[in-house]
Amino acid sequence: MNHPLARALRGAGIDAVDVAARLGVDPKTVQRWMTGRQPYPRHREALVALTGWSPHDLWPELARPADPATLADEVRIVYPHRSAVPADAWAGLLSRAEHEVAILAYSALFLAENVAVTDLLREKARAGVRVRIALGDPAGKHVATRGDEERIGAGMSARIRTALVGFGPLAEEPGAALGLHDTVLYNSICRADDELLVTSHIYGRPGAHAPVLHLKGSRVDGMVATYLASFERVWSVTKPAIV
């Protein structure tokens, strides 16, 4: 018998009968273990203690803990469209932020009109959380194009101006910043530290009809990092909003 367990037991001077007596099992069961059958977890722990070998030395086929460097970002939930996201999910996400909140959108009007969200953002800013909101420039060419694509024309700019009124009080908080951008909006992003709700926009359809991903970051080069880098690039070209 050349199975690692058999070698480990021989090295420890323990035979199958000894193991059976100590673990309260039949010697034939131990013989099966020594030829490759895997014991139950409680018996594996006992065999590790008896032999001094590690679990993976005794049973190389055991699944190994994932290396943090190889972990993929977690896709927690995929919503078919933004209107399917529970209303309290946005505030719930933002309430978990301890260091950073970032919102990228054209209007994010559904958030700006939610008093619970705007009050929460002010509280976060006062508590030292960095809060940044990047909305579309109402006079921007890309905002105008998006309005045409959605067949609402100047309605897109009007939505942004309304959102600026809702988010306006945030500008009074030292830890918050409200900016305007004129970039193509491929995705809207709502960030709370390493958690994101990402709305993946679709040509000609309003944001409420677009799919939403709830992501949790776990590595420096994963999906979440890609979206966060995108936010930073947009933020670098924003101008302060005047409200």
UniProtKB/TrEMBL annotation:
InterPro entries: Lambda_DNA-bd_dom_sf. It comes from Couchioplanes caeruleus. This is XRE family transcriptional regulator. One of its GO terms (molecular function) is DNA binding.
